[in-house]
Amino acid sequence: MFLYQKLQDLNSPIKVAFVGCGKFISMFLSQYNQLKKIRIDTIIDLDIERAKKNCSKSGLSSSTIDDINFVNSLDKAIDRDIDIFIEATGNPIVGTVHAEKIINKGKHIILVNVEADVTCGKYLSDLAIKNNVVCSMAYGDQPSLIMEQVEWARLNGFHVTCAGKGTKYHPTFEYSTPDTVWDHYGLTKEKAEVESGMNPKMFNSFTCGDKSAIEMAAVSNASNLKCPDNGLTFPSIGVYDIAKKLIPKTSGGLIDHDGQVEVISSIDTNKKDIPNDLRWGVYIVIKGQNQYVQNCFKDYGMVTDNSGQFSAIWRPYHYIGLELAQSIYSIALENKPTGSTKFYNAEVASYAKKDLKAGEKLDGEGGFCARGRLTTSSKSKSLKILPLGLSDGAVLKKDIKKDEIISLDDVELSLPKTVLDAREYQYNLIN
Fold first, then answer.
1. pLDDT by residue (tens digit) across 254-290?
2. In sequence order, which residues have a C-beta less than 8 Å from that of residue 161 and are 6 or more positions away?
3. DSSP output for 341-355
4. Domains of the chain: residue spans and CATH
5. Residues in CB range of 285: below 8 A, 6 or more apart
6. Which of 11, 46, 193, 267 is the most buried (most CB within 10 A)?
7. How far is residue 376's CA from residue 347's CA, in Å, rounded to a whole number?
């Protein structure tokens, strides 16, 4: 809090490097001219010309772009005088390798790459502590914003009953592919891909439920909130019913546990928009611990359930890369993350999106072959489930029927040692 005031006393610029220059980072770049004391040192991208075009489209002048060091490999930038690296490739395997290198160099890192955070985040977080650096969630993404609300609630003595986000979800969307995504998402292909530069595979992960599972796994692993018993259920709930419905079944609500994550849908079973939806936002449900607190809920007009015990707060939007500077300033000025992995509670399990054949290569999050479902890390380990974050490039050893769980024994994997070490480290945390 009050970072802007502290910023006025900062004498030297905060030097940052971006690993990957896609949509999220382009949004940050569009704010860059208005930001104080942040300096882009390096942008690392496999396609340097595309990265430069994204910089230009985002509003950077040609002179500013000329001052940036563009390279196509992290190894060409790792030894530069950079304070904070922002990993935004979206690839969990590559991102984990990048993060380990950055952390072992004694550099701070922001994981826009929530996929890497969910796949190997406990390993990376503990490695950062060992190296006395910060490994942070990216402010602007929903997990960080949810954690901000969770922290506020717990700091002020409230019990967090439920936390999560909104999205546009329907059970039939689970089988969406990059070819069908824009019909479900609500944009034309021209608008999404040509005008806005949106990646159909990445944005399909939002549509089919993969990203919701990934982000709620991240929140569970940061907050110690539980997973629903059978994965996310996506009830259609408007904001004024959050406190009434996202409470335990024992209290007349819909959730399995007193203290869990859940995602709500902005459309109903007929795919119609519901009133007062939270498609773009985040929420928490809190419980007043005594009658006086519950009376205060009522006295000050707070939205509650019928008993008056539970109240909810929500933020209607998240601004994605437009507010990433919050993480940069938090690390530079206070040496604090804007959310970080503390536990290994949750995983994202891989389920067959269609009938799959032996020899077929899986294509990961948002693709044509597999879909993700939130589960516990203990169940993932005991059933040897293939985490969605390891599925891209995995080759099937056997046929898998549509909707079946894909196990580690069902696939051939070719993973870097860093990822193997990270997964073994995390598995060893489970009894």
1. 999 999 999 999 999 999 999 999 999 999 999 999 9
2. 246, 247, 248, 255, 258, 259, 285, 286, 287, 310
3. -----EEEEEEESS-
4. 3-140+322-334 (3.40.50.720), 143-169+209-318 (no CATH), 346-427 (3.90.1210.10)
5. 160, 161, 162, 163, 242, 243, 246, 247, 310, 311, 312
6. 267
7. 6
